[in-house]
UniProtKB/TrEMBL annotation:
Pfam families (alphabetical): FeS_assembly_P
Entry-linked PANTHER family: FE-S PROTEIN MATURATION AUXILIARY FACTOR YITW
Domain MIP18 family-like: residue ranges: 11-84
Origin: domain of life: Bacteria
Entry protein name: MIP18 family protein YitW
Length: 106
């Protein structure tokens, strides 16, 4: 896969991530800053490093599964694994300007 194809695939994954919302906050998980990194292997397996707004997040069990399932809908992706981390801990500063504006924080 060329660098350009990998970049296109990364963009497609981000577009999918932007369709997933934290149920308590009307902003997608990407703009919230919950996605720390997206990796795609040469075998077209995706790995997503993400966090939650808190360790006690009510969607801690379901959100990672939703992310995996939605990313796997991309025909170029064979498999997807989500790894949850709390290092660094999520803070409001990690939100995009768009998310802060949406939530009236600007």
């Amino acid at each position: 896969m060329t660098d350009e194809q990998l970049e296109d695939l990364g963009d497609k994954i981000v577009r999918v991530l932007k369709t997933i919302y934290d149920p308590e906050i009307p902003v997608d998980i990407y703009e919230l800053g919950l996605i720390y990194d997206v990796f795609v292997s040469e075998e077209n397996d995706a790995k997503i490093l993400m966090t939650l707004t808190s360790p006690n997040c009510p969607v801690a069990e379901t959100l990672p599964i939703e992310v995996e399932d939605k990313v796997k809908t991309l025909k170029e992706i064979n498999d997807c694994e989500v790894e949850i981390t709390f290092d660094p801990t999520w803070t409001r500063e990690m939100m995009s300007e768009e998310a802060k504006l949406e939530l009236g924080m600007l």
